[in-house]
Amino acid sequence: MKFNKINVLGWVSILMLSISGLFFKEELSIIMTGFGGLICLLIGLTLTFYKGKKGSEKH
């Protein structure tokens, strides 16, 4: 699997979310718990596994 900039951005966002969850849990409780954390995780996973356009659809 070839990584592009979007995939790397997804990995970086997931990594930052997990590191901030380990060290700054009390300060970032809005992001780490509940619906906000789920949204951040889904955005990171979507960016990580994004394939892009193939063939003639590419501009």
- From N to C, what is the helix and strand string? HHH
Shape: elongated
Beginning-to-end CA distance, first to last residue: 21 Å
Largest sheet: none
Mean pLDDT: 80
Structural summary, described in words:
This protein starts with a helix and ends in an 11-residue tail after the last helix. It has one domain (5-50). α1 packs antiparallel against α3. The chain is mainly α. It has helices at residues 5-23, 29-32, 34-48.
State the main characteristics:
59 residues, mainly alpha, 64% helix, elongated
Condensed summary:
The protein contains 3 helices and no strands. The chain is mainly α.
Topology:
Elements: H1 5-23, H2 29-32, H3 34-48
